[in-house]
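Q: Start with the shorter request: fold the first protein.
A: Done. Sequence, then structure:
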Amino acid sequence: MNIERKDLLLYAVTDRNFLHGISLEDAVEQAILGGATCIQLREKAVDEGELINRAKKLIEVCHRYNVPFIINDDYEAALKCGADGVHVGIEDAPVAEIRRIAGKNFIIGATAKTIEQARLAESSGADYLGVGAVFPSPTKKNALRITPELLKEICGSVSIPAVAIGGITAENVKAIAGCGQSGIAVVSALFGAEDVRAAAEKLTEASKAAL
């Protein structure tokens, strides 16, 4: 397994639009110091060259603390910049194709909203799943909602770990307690906080309590 369950306890997904006057590098470091166990760089509005430049700065921070660094969607950029892996959505490149190109040691995460999608991702070579949105999400307002019951069914249908995502806060995560997730993925609840490190600490404890 390229990523362990413990690496998904607090999976931080970046969004510079939420930052309060600090650089993304500083925000990511504060998140890690507060307990973030994996970092995903999400940049929807830049070209590949700029994505790689931004990624390299974060790789240095993440690897300083032995935290896996994932790029959203673009597996080619992830391979070029030396990222540990990629996370792909249902509409992105197939997991099997990425695994064939990237090799066995590259981390591949895949979004799953149904049991069928989860099982296909696992059989195609995915290392972990992202399942959601479990709550209304400020970053993906039209995202399909996943009930706690379906989250539990999806997590139980595969042997690879799954991280819950979508509108998760330290306060509402208790609603998915015991659903089988290995952790939570957060965006605004972390990078939108005035004190990123303190938010990460609170989210880490909440994630542990919900396992």
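Q: Next, the second protein, separately.
A: Sequence, then structure:
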Amino acid sequence: MNVENGVHDAHYFVPAPSRWPIVGSIALFCMAMGAAFAMNSVGAGKWLLIAGFAILLWMIVGWFGDVIKEAQAGDYGLQVDHSLRWGMSWFIFSEVMFFAAFFGALFYTRVISVPEIGYFSDTHDLLWSSFQAVWPAATGPKVDAYTAMEAFGLPAINTAILLTSGATLTWAHWGLVEGRRGQLKLGLAITVLLGCLFLTFQAIEYHHAWTEMGLNLGSGAYGATFFMLTGFHGMHVLVGTIMLSTMLGRALKGHFTKEHHFGFEAAAWYWHFVDVVWLILFVFVYWL
């Protein structure tokens, strides 16, 4: 693509035919079949599932590697840059809708369904005489007693960790824009370590909830929404940490310039999105 004075011509970079989509399809097929076999106690199920994960990892590394090579070769001009920015923007929007659905489920349960069931006391007395319209509620007659998770403790520490990670990532971005490579690398390294620390504390929190508080996926609506929201958020933190680790590896190899570093920006956008989701989650799941 020819680019001069910020004006691009009509040509658009088209990558060479790639084997990675079919490799990814094979990986997902193996994972789906392996999971189905494993749940039905078929001996080869777990091995097929492991093979699927391995093939998927190979696909991710190979496909991302090809994209990085194309970027480093200067194949991406203004049109591609615009497409990448729009693509990442729409991807994050889809993630916003993903979490909006789960927060909507939490809102419906807390604000609508539990009070309504309590309002119709004559009906629920016949079906479930011990029901109380309070939150967190043991919303099921066979739910064992459990303790709700406190906001202050590990959740508050994890909030401070994610807020700090957002600051260190922004500091790394400043270093990149201002040509301070050492600041870029150090800021990214600290952010990755904070992401790993967050995941470690969340694993400790889950173990404590499951073994000592009686809080699990079967603990009524509260347990289901708690693990659904925090679990999916933790998965996004893991993905974001992997993305930032990749950016750190690229920075150590001398990739990115202050003019061209959208790969870094895309990972930063994603991480800041994850931070914002956690703040909302902390308020409505842990605190209120």
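Q: Describe the second briefly.
A: Confidence is low (pLDDT under 50) at residues 1-9. The chain has eight helices and two strands.
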